[in-house]
Amino acid sequence: MSDDTVVVWDESLLTYDLGDHPLDPVRVELTVALARELGVLDRPGVRLVAPTPADDAALARVHRPDYLDAVRAAPSDPLFSGYGLGTPDNPIFDGMHESSALVAGASLAAAEAVWRGEARRAVNVAGGLHHAMPSRAAGFCVYNDPAVAIARLLDLGAERVAYVDVDVHHGDGVQEVFYTDPRVLTISLHETPLALFPGTGFSDETGGPGGEGSAVNLPLPPGTGDAGWLRGFHATVPALLRAFRPQILLTQCGADSHRLDPLADLRLSVDGQRASYLALRALADELCEGRWVATGGGGYALVEVVPRAWTHLLAVATGDPVDPAALTPPAWRALAKARRPEREVPLRMTDDADGSYEPWQPTGEPDAVDRAIMATRKAVFPLHGLDPQDPAL
Fold first, then answer.
1. Does residue 364 surpass a pLDDT of 80?
2. Half-sphere exposure (CA, 13 Å, Cβ side) for 208?
3. Of 115, 145, 112, whose CA–CA distance to 131 is shortest?
4. Which residues form the Histone deacetylase domain (predicted)?
C-alpha cells in the first residue's frame, strides 16, 4: 500500500452551485486556497487528482433510474416539479446532473484510490452530500456521493465498510441506503432530530431486518460544545468500530457543528473539530491499516469556519496537523475578503479552545449529553456483543 494521500480536486467541482443559497461553493474554494497557502497540498506524498463524473451505472447503485432522468431533465423544463427538486432547499440549476455526478465521481476516485492501495488516505472536500435519497433530492443534496462511494467499495469486494458522519445533521440518506446491509456500519453524531432537519436519527434507529446493529445514532442536545460532543464520540465510536472491524473507514466531516454556524445549534470550536479528525485518523490507523476516505459536508459559516476546519482535516489526512496557533496567511485573508467582504476573516487557525473532555461514566448525575450517550449505548451496544454499562468501552 502506498503511503500517499490523494486529494481529489479540480475547480470544476465549484460548479455544484445552488445560486443564492447557504451551500455556497466559495467555502470549498477558500478551503483549498487556505490549504495551499499553508503548504498542506505541497507536502511530500500528496497527490492532487482531478475527478471524472460518475457514470449512470455508478449512480444507479444508489439512485433510481427515473430520478437520474429527472435530474437531467429538470433544468430545461420550466414547469418541472417532483423528486424533491425545485424547492428552496434544492433549487434547480443549469448543469445540475453534470456537477452532481462530478462530486460523486470525486468521492468514487477517493474511495477507489484507497481500496486499491494507491493511497493510504484520500479526501474530497467538495463531497459529503449525505441527505440525497434514492429517488429524491433533500437537504441541499442531489446525488449521495458517500453512498455511491460505499456501494463501489462493496462491488470491489469490501466486506466491512464503516461510515462515520460528524455533520450537525443526521446522515439520513447514507443510513437509508444501507439500513439492512450488515456489511456497512453507519454512525452519525448530530443535533437531536427534535430540533433540527431532517427529523431522523434517534438512538433507536439501529438497522433494519438483516442489518440489526448496522446503524448507530447519537442525537445530541442543542448547545452541546466540545467537551460534551467529544465525550459522546469517545463513548460510542471507538468501541463500535473495534467490534465491527472495518476494512476501510469513510467519514463525512461537515463543519456545521461549529458554534458560529447559522443553521444549527451545536457549539463546537474549530479546535474540537480538529480533535475529531485526529481521533478518526487514529481509529483508521488502528483498525484499517490507515485506510481512510474523508469528505466535506455541511458548513455555512463560509469564511469564518469552514476553510479552517477543512484545512485542518486536509492537514490531518496528509501528515502533521496544522498548529492551532498558526496565523492565516495574508494572501488568503485578502482572497477571503475579496470574495465575501461582509464576512469577518479569521486571523488564526484556532478558536482558543483546548478540546479537552471528561470520559463518559455511567454513574453520577447525568446531564442531557450523558442521557443521550446511554440511550445510544443501550440501543446498539448489545447488538455488537458490548456491555452498554462498561465505561472501559
1. no
2. 7
3. 145
4. 21-315
The owner of cell 427534535 is 194
Strand partners, 246: none
Does the pLDDT value for residue 355 go beyond 90?
A: no
Cell numbers 436519527 correspond to 201
Give which of 389, 379, 393 is closest to 207, Cα–Cα: 379
* 130 assigned to active site: no
Instruction: Specify whether the CB–CB gap between 345 and 328 falls below 8 A.
Output: yes
The H-assigned helical ranges of the chain are 26-37, 56-59, 65-73, 96-115, 145-155, 172-177, 226-244, 270-287, 306-318, 330-339, 368-380
C-alpha cell at 228: 460534551
> Please, are residues 298 and 128 in contact by the beta-carbon 8 Å criterion?
yes
Q: Which of 169-183, 216-230, 354-368 has the lowest mean pLDDT?
A: 354-368
Cα–Cα dist 93/104, whole Å:
17
Distance of CA 22 to the CA centre of its chain: 17
Please check the confidence at residue 126 and state whether its pLDDT lies above 90: yes
pLDDT of residue 257: 98
- pTM of the predicted structure, to 2 decimals: 0.98
Spatial separation of the C-alpha atoms in residues 79 and 226, rounded to whole Å: 46
- Of the candidates 63, 97, 130, 131, the residue annotated as catalytic is 131
Q: Cα-flanking dihedrals φ and ψ of residue 137, to 5°?
A: -80, 150
Q: Is the pLDDT of residue 363 over 90?
A: no
Alpha-carbon distance of 66 to 142, in angstroms, equals 14
With contact defined as beta carbons under 8 Å apart, do 219 and 372 qualify?
Answer: yes
Please check whether residue 315 is in contact with residue 322, taking contact to mean a CB–CB distance below 8 angstroms: yes
In angstroms, the CA 341 to CA 329 distance is 17
Per-residue burial over 25-41, b if 16 or more Cβ lie within 10 Å, else e, is: bbbbbbbbbbbbbbebb
Backbone angles phi, psi at 315, to 5 degrees: -65, -45
50 close to 9: Cβ distance less than 8 angstroms: yes
- Using the structure block, give the residue that is written with the C-alpha cell 475527478: 51
373 Cβ partners below 8 Å, 6+ apart? Answer: 218, 231, 232, 235, 236, 360
Strand order through the sheet with 5-8: 46-49, 5-8, 121-124, 292-295, 248-252, 161-165, 184-191, 215-220
